[in-house]
Amino acid sequence: MKRDPFNDYNRLPMEKAYNVRELGGYAARKGKITCYHEFLRSDSLYGITKEDEEFLIEYGVEAVIDLRGEPEAVNHPNPLQNYEEVDYINLPFITDNVLDMREVKDKGFDPCKFYVNLTEYKEMVAELMRFILDHRDGCVLFHCTAGKDRTGVLAMILLGICGVSREDIMANYEVSFSYLDQNVEVHYGEGLEELNNSKREWIAAAYDHILETYGSFKKYLLACGLSKKEIRRIRKKLL
Length: 239
Hints:
Blueprint lengths: L20 E2 L16 E4 L7 H10 L1 E6 L3 H6 L11 E4 L20 H9 L2 H12 L5 E5 L6 H12 L4 H9 L1 H5 L19 H15 L2 H7 L4 H11 L1
Parallel strand pairs: 2-5, 3-4, 3-5
Antiparallel strand pairs: 1-2
Helix pairs in contact: 3-8, 4-10, 5-6, 6-8, 8-9
C-alpha cells in the first residue's frame, strides 16, 4: 500500500486497523483549526503489519495511551510499545462496574449512562491529560478496542476544550460504525449487536452532561483537577 506519512489524512490508510483517525481539520475557537499530526484516535493495533507500525512512527507517533483494561492490554499488546521512540502507557479508562462494553450481558445496559459515567471518572481524565501534557511535541495516539467508546469520550473532551462544534464532535464519533461494520474482530458478539453501533445519542449524552453539569469543557477540566494553565497548554497542542 502506497502512503505518505507527511500527508494530512482524515482516516489513515492502514492495512490491519480500521478506525485510525485524525483529530485535525476541525473548525475551533477564535477562528482556528485543529492541527494534524498531533492526535490520532484508534482501534486496537494488535495484529497490524510491520509496515503499518513503521508508517505510524513515520507519521509522528511518539506517545501511545492504551485505554483498555490491563488483561486485554497484556493479552493483545500494542506493538508500538516495542519502539524506543514511543512512550507507551496503559491507563484503563473504565467505570467501577463496567470494564468493557463487550462484557455486558444484561439487556438493560444503557450506553448513554456508561458514557456519562466515563466523564465522571475525573481522576483518570486528569491523569490522561497530564500524560498528554508531558508529550506536547509529538503525535499522541490513544485507543481502546474498537476505537469507539472510551476512545470516543476522550476525543470528545479534547475537541470540546478546543471549541469544536457539537455537530462536528457528534460526526467525529458517529463515523466509527461505518469503518468498523465489516471488521468482525471487534464486534461485540451474539446478543450484543446493538453495541456495535456508534449512535449519536450515546456521545451526545456525555457531551450534554458536561455542559449541563459544569457549564463548559473548561470548567469540567477544572473540576477534574487541572489548572487553567494546563488547560491552555492542552488547547495549544491541538490548535
